[in-house]
Amino acid sequence: MSDSLSPQPDTPLHVGMFDSGLGGLSVLKAALRDMPGASFTYLADSGFAPYGHRPAAVIVDRSERIGEYLLQLGADMVVVACNTATTQAIASLRKRWPHAHWVGVEPGIKPAVKSTRNGRVGVMATPGTLSSARYAELLRQHAPHITCVGVACEGLAGAIEGGPATAHLVESLLDLYCAQMSAHKVDTVVLGCTHYPLVADQIRQRLPSQTVLIDTAEAVSRRIRHLASSHMPLDAARVATPVAAQLQLLSTGDPSLLAQMATQHLGLGALEASSAPNTLRPPAQSIHAR
């Protein structure tokens, strides 16, 4: 990989993206829409999902393994489409590969502070995100005079990851965590895990009608485009290229579930997914550990 975003004129920009599982599809959807001329490789680490309860050292190790693989595939930039992996591992990724281009996803504290009317903001996130030093720094920087209520949504990302088979569990957990948000009378709720926008409609139904939900997928997509805009003109030929033909979906878990969820959420018609290389697959005892 080169030190700058400068693919050949006839070669689309290659964006690598990974998440602990399916949640990053919310970021991928925005990026596909905003950058129709780019090529995307999305890797769902579903065999090791969720990241939220795992030690930081384990998350760093997984992120480095996957990041290195995407760079080896020729990615011009890598998007860490996972709040937990960003808060726990992106500093290590940037240190190990300083010339690579890394884009992270963080809880949208800053836009939430701008949005709130009563000074009370809720943050739905994984335990790993809420306990991270980066989250504490975001609060210090952007919300020193705002009441921020963090709710550790234990099990929610894993339940969403399970797809239709665990839909009933998703509903029960949303009842629990949204009731906590309402009890604190927050008027703005940050979706601090990329899995949560996949169930944003269900969350919205459980909160007061005037509650604002903050999803950072759009901001991340703008950041990706900003990094690439001066290096890859989105000319008519690239825009005309079918997006689905430029998208590769990989999973360390069940690729059929990734294909099903991508087909449902990306709006590109029927999609296929493949298994990630065996070198990225987690130990058997870790698969589907919750």
Automatic annotation (TrEMBL):
Catalytic activity reads: L-glutamate = D-glutamate
Q: Which GO terms describe its molecular function?
A: glutamate racemase activity
Q: Which UniProt keywords apply?
A: Cell shape, Cell wall biogenesis/degradation, Isomerase, Peptidoglycan synthesis
Q: In which pathway does it act?
A: Cell wall biogenesis; peptidoglycan biosynthesis
- Stated EC number for the protein is 5.1.1.3
Instruction: Kindly list the positions annotated as binding substrate.
Output: 19-20, 51-52, 83-84, 194-195
Q: Which Pfam families match?
A: Asp_Glu_race (PF01177)
Residues annotated as the enzyme's active site? 82, 193
The record's section on InterPro entries has: Asp/Glu/hydantoin_racemase, Asp/Glu_race, Asp/Glu_racemase_AS_1, Asp/Glu_racemase_AS_2, Glu_race
Task: State any GO BP term from the record.
Answer: peptidoglycan biosynthetic process
- Reading the lineage from the top rank, the first entry is Bacteria
Q: What SUPFAM superfamilies is this protein classified in?
A: Aspartate/glutamate racemase
- Which family is annotated? Belongs to the aspartate/glutamate racemases family.
Q: State the protein's purpose.
A: Provides the (R)-glutamate required for cell wall biosynthesis.
Database matches in HAMAP family: Glu_racemase
**Record-given protein name:** Glutamate racemase
UniProt organism field:
Ideonella livida
Tell me the gene name.
murI
